[in-house]
Design goal:
The chain is α+β, with helices and mostly antiparallel strands and about 270 residues long. The protein contains 5 helices and 10 strands, in the order ββααβααβββββββα.
Amino acid sequence: MGCDIHWHSETLIDGKWVCDQAASYTPADPEDQYSGIEMDDFPNRNRDYWWFGLLAADVRVEYPWSFPYQGIIPPDLSAEVAALIAQWDGDGHSHGTHTRADLKAKREELKPIQAEYLISPPTGDIDHYATVVNHHAQRLEQAITNLSADVPDTDQRIVFWFDNWSGGLRPLDENFKGEFMKISVYPAKVWVLTPSFKPKEVELTGLYSTWDRVNYHRTVGTYYSDNDIALTKAEIIAVGKERLAKQKADQLKRQIGIDKREAALKAAEAK
C-alpha cells in the first residue's frame, strides 16, 4: 500500500501562523456530500520514501540523520491547514513541522556526511547511503528555496502529514505473534554477519514491513531478514560457513566454465 505526503507552508505574521497557499483555499460544498476542501500544496509534493524518512524517522524508512518522529498536530496552525488536517481525520498520520531554520541546520549536518561517504563509500546493507544523503541534500535545498518569505528563518515552516500506514516500525498485535520468525518480542539482541563476515551483535528494535519487504526486523539505520540473524554467535558463524561453502561451490563452477572457454580458444588457435 502506497504512502503519500500532504504539506503546506506557513509564515509567522504578527504572532500568528498564516498559510502561504491560503489564496487557493476552496471550502467543501455543503450541498455535495462528496466534495472536500481543496488547496494548493507546497511545491514538489511527490511520493519519495527517502525524503519521507528524512522528514520523519520511521515513515517508510529511517536514517541515522533523520529528523525525529513528531506525530503531533501543532495547536497554532493556520485556519486553512487546520481544516485540511481535520478533513483527513484518522486517515492522516505522522504529522510534523520543520522551520526553514530546521531545514538549513539539517543541510549543514549532512555536509560532513557527504564528504565522509565521498572519501569512504558505505558498503554492505548501507551501500546506498551515499546516494540517499545526496538526494536528501537536494530535496532540502529545494524546500529551503521555496520557503522564500522575507522573514527570519524561524518564522516560516512546512507543515506535513502522510496518508495510509507508514510501513515502518509497528507493534506486534494478537494477530501476529511471529511464530514463523525467530524474534517476536522487541527489543532483542541477535547476531548478524557484517559484509566482511565478521560476527556482530546488534539490537533489533521492532518489526519492519513495506510494500516490497514483509516481516523484516529493524535496527537503527537498517533492517535484517529472518535469514540474516541468529540467536547466538555460534549459530551465525555456522550460517557464515554455509554461505562461504556455497560461494566456493559457485566459484568452482564458474572456474570450470572459464577453463572450458579458455581450452576452446587454445584449440582454435592450434588449428
